[in-house]
Amino acid sequence: MDQYIIRGGNPLVGEVDISGAKNAALGILAAAIMTDDTVLVENLPDVRDTNVLLAAIEEIGAKVERITRHAVLINGSKISDICVENEYIRQIRASYYLIGALLGKYKRAEVPLPGGCNIGSRPIDLHLKGFRAMGAKVELRHGSIFAEAEHLHGAHIFLDTVSVGATINIMMAACMAEGNTSIENCAREPHVVDVANFLNSMGANIKGAGTDVIRIRGVERLHATEYSIIPDQIEAGTFMFAAAATRGDVMVRNVIPKHLEATSSKLMEIGCEVEEFDSAVRVVAARRLSGTNVKTLPYPGYPTDMQPQIGVALSLAQGTSIVTESIFENRLKYLDELARMGGIAKVEGNTAIITGVEKLTGARVQALDLRAGAALVIAGLAAEGITTIDDIKFIQRGYETFDEKLRSLGAEIEIVSSEKQAQKFILKTG
Ligand code: EPZ
After folding, report:
1. Which of 83, 117, 175, 186 is catalytic?
2. pLDDT value at residue 114
3. Global confidence as pTM
């Protein structure tokens, strides 16, 4: 089993390029099958989740041609099967986007219930409520969602909770429904806007993405497009916090600084300098960080996907901090792993009271999910001595060449798959 092994203590210094946004890519790849023409998707991150989704759409008959590591041609004209069954598809959350895409295009879909990171109960009732409002009959049978509509029509849909997945899924189906749909209290995340822009570039008629009401006028067909995915603001934020926790100086390139405002502002609050450029941000942490309070919220609030990373930085900050996770109920468990490294936190419900320590010390810890895993990498980079992280498959779901990018900033980190390789790393870096 692969592990990351890290010798901590080096401040991260240098420049790093951010890949395309995983969560935008997942919506876009599913939406790409909604036309019979060929679609070119560029700036695609080469991560496990996007590769699993590509394998799934290939399996139902779409032609998928990877022309470079970061560009793919997709043609959905030969889709023969509206039943998605793929050995991996249950593992990824975004498999649910195939319900919206197939229902919109073929008015029928059969997709296994989604898996994904274990960060809470993660229901999809809002997605299904939206499809039903549009005239679809939706049933759960033998672990799969069956959706079918004789007449898929526009509807007025109010989301009780702000949901990224429900917003994107309903928006996709509504693009090819008859008439007008409005989605109220929808998510405003940059990836929602990116999927809407992609669909519009295929001829859809979506207005208001990025606000809390999206209006869609259904069209009969979508057409070819060439589209480049936005940069990943969570990958960017992870490197920004890695710079902060190691007291480094990192220029994070190929980003949209506007998407990083919540992260940048917290970093400044805890004592970092953050300089914005047109498509880059530089984070300098010249002194020990100071504690603060943070609560996760839907965009433009502080992202839940950046909560473990700030939690690690605050564990090293001066003073006490309060972290409140208001989106998912199971996203503070990384603090138990961090405790093995000397972190001090008291968790009550969805709140963690973190007492900053002067230093963390390396230990063997486990990546519990994607962002929890990335946060433990940050902890390992900042800690004294050797940290090993198990279950890095979770981290590889969403970070492209994470270890390589970190090494380019001066980190001592490698992937090892045996005790012998781990010993070799320890000797080499000791
Ligand atoms: C997306 O998950 C992201 N995943 C998550 O990224 C991210 O953490 C999350 O949005 C919040 O930003 C993808 O884009 C593939 P939600 P999603 O629907 O769509 C409740 C990462 O690390 N809810 O916005 O599944 C839900 O329980 C990941 O990259 C319902 O009650 O999240 C949660 O409390 C992990 N009913 C809240 O809404 C529903 O039908 C927000 O969830 C749907 C959601």
Report:
1. 117
2. 73
3. 0.97
